[in-house]
């Protein structure tokens, strides 16, 4: 490298950084307006009682239909929403919309279905979370036990004592709690025992190579055994093959979720499925999500 090319690449780097910063700024500006402009969408991914059904409920997953950009995945805008605090109004919108949708499904006769909503750390620790949850389930008249709140293991273990207190209040209402992405954080088993959760969700990372990697197989069977010991339902996320489905079912995993059984989809697509062949195993290519 000559001195000159070094300087050029430096200024090139700065320019692209500026372009990126500019983009982030624009994204933040647009995201702020996305809620009032009604650009947020929820897609729902089914959860199946192992081994192959029935559907027990759905996880609500947020998307942003940004004009000119198409349907954006949470990976694109959630980090920004968390950094700026926009996750709070956004999360409230998600919670309300998921409960509204559930009440609609219940009215249509699917009273056994539940809905799961993801909470970020900031949301989980907001002082009026419990109050907001009460407001929303009252507004939509849904039975508390049909709402599950998913918090990641990492979030739950940030302030374990606080988490226990919050989850105590939520479970007193009857709302269920799920520890998401389990196995990727650092749970103290002592706290895990005290956490009033009703579900462990094994992270996708362990499911990927479940049937080809002995370590992953051992970890997954240990988590399932732990869940059974602690009286927690165990959910596997990211189930993509029939081999994984069979293996998990054999180990006693309660609930399966993944592209094999159902992609995240719109309520309209769910409506189409119920009237046809659900629970089928392979989702036709036309139903693949088009998310960036
Ligand atoms: P998560 O809660 O662990 O959700 C599972 C993610 O894995 C979803 O990605 C889902 O589409 C994807 N997935 C499900 N099955 C499979 C599979 O078989 N294979 C593969 N490769 N992926 C699968 P998505 O929708 O992009 O969401 C990513 C993360 O964003 C979520 O992880 C959750 O942490 C967060 N998130 C999504 N919606 C919300 C929300 O409304 N609020 C908050 N706070 N976070 C959300
Ligand atoms: Mg989740
Ligand atoms: Mg997860
Ligand atoms: Mg995950």
TrEMBL record:
GO biological process, one term: cellular response to nitric oxide
Annotated Gene Ontology cellular component terms: membrane
Keywords (A to Z) from UniProt: c-di-GMP, Membrane, Transmembrane, Transmembrane helix
Stretches assigned to the EAL domain: 24-278
GO molecular function, one term: diguanylate cyclase activity
Superkingdom of this protein's organism: Bacteria
Name of the protein in its database record: Bifunctional diguanylate cyclase/phosphodiesterase
């Amino acid at each position: 490298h000559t001195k000159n090319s070094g300087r050029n690449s430096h200024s090139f780097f700065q320019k692209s950084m500026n372009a990126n910063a500019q983009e982030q700024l624009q994204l933040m500006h647009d995201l702020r307006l996305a809620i009032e402009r009604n650009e947020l969408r929820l897609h729902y991914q089914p959860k199946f009682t192992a081994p192959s059904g029935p559907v027990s409920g759905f996880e609500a997953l947020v998307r942003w239909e940004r004009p000119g950009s198409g349907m954006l995945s949470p990976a694109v805008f959630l980090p920004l929403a968390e950094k700026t605090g926009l996750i709070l109004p956004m999360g409230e919108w998600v919670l309300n919309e998921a409960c509204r949708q559930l009440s609609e499904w219940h009215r249509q006769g699917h009273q056994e279905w539940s809905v799961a909503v993801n909470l970020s750390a900031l949301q989980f620790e907001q002082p009026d979370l419990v109050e907001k949850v009460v407001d929303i389930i009252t507004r939509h008249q849904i039975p508390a036990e049909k709402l599950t709140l998913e918090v990641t293991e990492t979030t739950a273990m940030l302030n374990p004592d606080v988490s226990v207190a919050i989850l105590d209040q939520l479970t007193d209402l009857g709302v269920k709690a799920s520890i998401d992405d389990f196995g990727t954080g650092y749970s103290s088993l002592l706290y895990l025992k005290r956490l009033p959760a009703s579900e462990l969700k094994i992270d996708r990372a362990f499911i990927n190579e479940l049937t080809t990697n002995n370590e992953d197989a051992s970890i997954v069977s240990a988590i399932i055994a732990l869940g059974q010991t602690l009286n927690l339902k165990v959910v596997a996320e990211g189930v993509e093959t029939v081999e994984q489905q069979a293996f998990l079912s054999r180990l006693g995993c309660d609930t399966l979720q993944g592209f094999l059984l159902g992609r995240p989809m719109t309520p309209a697509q769910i409506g189409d499925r119920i009237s046809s062949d659900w629970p089928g195993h392979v989702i036709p290519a036309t139903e693949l999500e088009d998310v960036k």
